[in-house]
């Protein structure tokens, strides 16, 4: 089983331009830890929200808005 993130616009449209990293993870925890370390870079790259995928199945979606 592989875990990955789908990067999306604020309206939920996938960002498919290839400029953001296409990382694959062996566990959900690894994927979530990586996101915690890199979310600001993803926002700088144009992502407003992300969806965690287990293989191709969406698990959850979350905003990348800075709560501060």
Structural overview:
The chain has one helix at 28-44, and strands spanning 3-8, 49-54, 57-63. It has 68 residues and is an alpha+beta fold.
Key terms:
three-stranded antiparallel beta sheet; alpha+beta; globular; 68 residues
Q: Order of SSEs, N→C?
A: EHEE
Give the helix tally.
1
Q: Looking across the biggest beta sheet, what order are the strands in? A: 1-2-3
- First-to-last CA distance: 35 Å
User: What percent of the residues sit in helical stretches (DSSP H or I)?
Assistant: 25-40%
Unreliable runs, pLDDT <50, ≥5 residues? none
- Report the β-strand fraction as a percent range: 25-35%
The whole-number mean of residue pLDDT values reads 94
Secondary structure blueprint with pairings:
Elements: E1 3-8, H1 28-44, E2 49-54, E3 57-63
Antiparallel strand pairs: 1-2, 2-3
Offer a concise description of the structure:
With 68 residues, this protein is of the alpha+beta class. It contains 1 helix and 3 strands; from the N terminus they run E-H-E-E.
């Amino acid at each position: 089983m592989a875990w990955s993130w789908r990067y999306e616009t604020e309206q939920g449209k996938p960002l498919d331009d290839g400029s953001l990293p296409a990382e694959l993870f062996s566990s959900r925890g690894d994927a979530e830890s990586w996101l915690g370390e890199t979310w600001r870079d993803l926002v700088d790259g144009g992502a407003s929200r992300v969806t965690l995928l287990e293989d191709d199945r969406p698990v959850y979606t979350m905003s990348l808005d800075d709560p501060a």
